[in-house]
Design a protein that fits this description.
By secondary structure, the chain is mainly β. It is built from 3 helices and 35 strands.
């Protein structure tokens, strides 16, 4: 269980990085959460709240469950809660009609839920449980509750305010240029078509790098203990185990001591530090994290971190981009070995789509001086410090455009 205290007023959302607001928490309020996803905390009373990349909005820590006092149920949609009692032992699932069991509720236990979908109850502590078509497993009723006051938009979101001290990735970004790694059907390496995967339905959409200006894949990179720890922070234990399976593409041929391939996944964004021409071919040197660094932090949703935290994806024969396994979000640090050619990560420049150089003007005359990335959202920062949304999972919002698709949401 997670226990923390808000340092500033925070807005509660329906999901990490979401836009639908559920409520607000004032400053200096103790909160209890059941899980952390990239510094987004899942409140036990429902909803998600951002603690900030450096916990600058909410200071929190993991505590034993015994240290957390029972929390009263929160109203669900429409200002009501559901109160019931189990008549038999019931399994808790991840979704209505799901097969992934999250836990068990014994018989004769009082439960609270925030919504009912065809006799599947959404528990306020997380998960779904079936009451049975005739409530033969759980007898329940709707309990009216006070309607919460309307929520004003949080002025900090989106995008969050810029920190006084930029993170290292943002500083590198300002000195370089952002580009997107071309997917198979845009990439001359694969003759502008999905690569031949033989009898497989899909194949990890890998992009290779070299420690020198060469189109061939370079030396392997040590899979250090700090990187393994960071990988678990990004994904959790179970997903980390899956990405470390050789067939997923990151490792391929296991070594002792462990190493990973000098690769990442297409459709992710990177920072070009410099370019160089060798034998008539231009190569780009890409910024990557140090595989020996012990202070790596930040996740895909944090400001500019998706430039060094990449999302796994695979490509199908029909040019569809899919997630790991059965639609699993999986993230890997884009890293290099500083002991090999100063950590250079070279790739042919024609395997990249460079973003429009800064500054530039939108169709309405707005001048954009900096790109800011928050997960699947891209903002343009104006000279006066305000920002405009350029792209989100639903598409482009202005005349600014890149040709590359995004990684799957």
């Amino acid at each position: 269980m997670i226990k923390g205290k808000t340092l500033t007023k925070r807005t509660i959302f329906d999901k990490p990085g979401g836009q639908k607001t559920l409520g607000r928490i004032e400053a200096n309020v103790e909160i209890i959460a059941s899980e952390n996803k990239y510094q987004w905390l899942h409140l036990v009373n429902g909803g998600w709240v951002s603690a900030g990349p450096a916990q600058q909005y909410i200071k929190w820590q993991v505590v034993p469950d015994s240290d957390v006092p029972p929390q009263p149920p929160s109203p669900g949609a429409g200002g009501v809660i559901i109160k019931g009692r189990t008549l038999a032992k019931r399994y808790i699932f991840d979704r209505p009609g799901g097969h992934k069991a999250l836990g068990i509720i014994e018989a004769n236990v009082e439960i609270y839920a925030s919504e009912n979908q065809f006799q599947w109850l959404h528990l306020v502590d997380g998960g779904w449980v079936s009451a049975g078509p005739a409530q033969q497993y759980i007898k329940w009723q709707v309990m009216p509750a006070e309607t919460p006051p309307p929520v004003d938009p949080d002025p900090d979101i989106p995008p969050p305010p810029q920190p006084d001290v930029p993170n290292p990735v943002t500083e590198v970004k300002r000195m370089g240029r952002i580009a997107t790694l071309l997917v198979d059907w845009q990439n001359p390496k694969w003759d502008f078509a999905p690569r031949d995967v033989g009898p497989l339905n899909a194949y990890p959409q890998t992009v290779t790098f070299s420690h020198v200006c060469d189109y061939r894949k370079g030396t392997r990179i040590p899979l250090t203990d700090p990187i393994l720890k960071y990988l678990k922070t990004l994904n959790g234990e179970r997903i980390t185990e899956q990405i470390l399976i050789p067939s997923t593409g990151w490792i391929n041929n296991p070594t002792v001591p462990p190493t990973v391939e000098r690769i990442t996944w297409a459709a992710n964004h990177v920072i070009v530090k410099e370019t160089r021409v060798e034998a008539g071919i231009e190569y780009s040197n890409i910024h990557a994290s140090n595989c020996y660094a012990t202070d790596l932090s930040g996740a895909f949703l944090d400001k500019d971190m998706r430039l060094v935290v990449h999302k796994f994806n695979a490509v199908t024969k029909k040019s569809a981009i899919i997630k790991l396994g059965s639609a699993i979000d999986c993230y890997t640090p884009f890293m290099t070995d500083p002991d090999v050619m100063n950590g250079d990560m070279w790739i042919r420049s024609d395997y990249l789509e460079l973003w429009h150089p800064l500054p530039f003007a939108l169709a309405d005359g707005t001048e954009i001086v900096e790109y800011e990335l928050y997960g699947h959202k891209i903002f343009g920062r104006r000279a006066d410090g305000s920002a405009v949304l350029l792209r989100d999972p639903q598409g482009f919002k202005t005349n600014w455009h890149i040709n590359s698709p995004d990684v799957p949401v």
